[in-house]
Design goal:
With about 160 residues, the protein is mainly α. Helix content is about 75%, strand content about 0%.
């Protein structure tokens, strides 16, 4: 009798803890999915759309007009808080090489390798962004547009 009486108190308390734990876990998963969805739709999809508009973005990115390079630059710099570590660690180099290319275009011969270095970092950061977009699309069960872009463009020669 004492055991049954004891179980009458333990089972409801235990069920409350289990329900709380499962609710917290579900809430955490929903929050993570919402954040990933926002990241994907706010930055990754527009970035991939711009790359698709340029189609073969690996062909000498430095030859793109300044306005086009500026669009990519603004997108990356204004959304760096949405990037994963693999692309965000490239931002300082990307920023520096973008400015170096501007110096070269303004006639500063001290930056004679700026075009090649800009091309390398642009391909590297774009590839990192596309790989992140692949992971996000998988987690969101979206079509893998990033994989399509990566396989349709020969980027392997630029990836380190």
């Amino acid at each position: 009798m004492i055991v049954i009486s004891w179980l009458n108190y333990v089972i409801p308390v235990l069920s409350i803890f289990i329900t709380y734990f499962l609710g917290t876990l579900n809430s955490k998963n929903n929050l993570k999915k919402d954040v990933n969805l926002q990241r994907y739709e706010t930055f990754y999809v527009p970035y991939m759309s711009k790359l698709l508009a340029a189609y073969n973005f690996t062909d000498d990115p430095h030859k793109s007009p300044f306005e086009v390079r500026g669009v990519y630059f603004d997108m990356i710099m204004n959304n760096m808080h949405l990037l994963d570590s693999s692309s965000s660690k490239l931002i300082p180099s990307y920023y520096k090489r973008f400015l170096d290319l501007l110096e070269f275009e303004n006639g500063n011969d001290d930056f004679q390798f700026a075009q090649k270095r800009y091309d390398e970092i642009f391909i590297e950061i774009s590839t990192a962004i596309l790989k992140e977009a692949e992971e996000l699309s998988k987690s969101l069960n979206y079509p893998n547009l990033a994989k399509t872009i990566l396989t349709s463009v020969d980027h392997r020669t630029y990836v380190r």
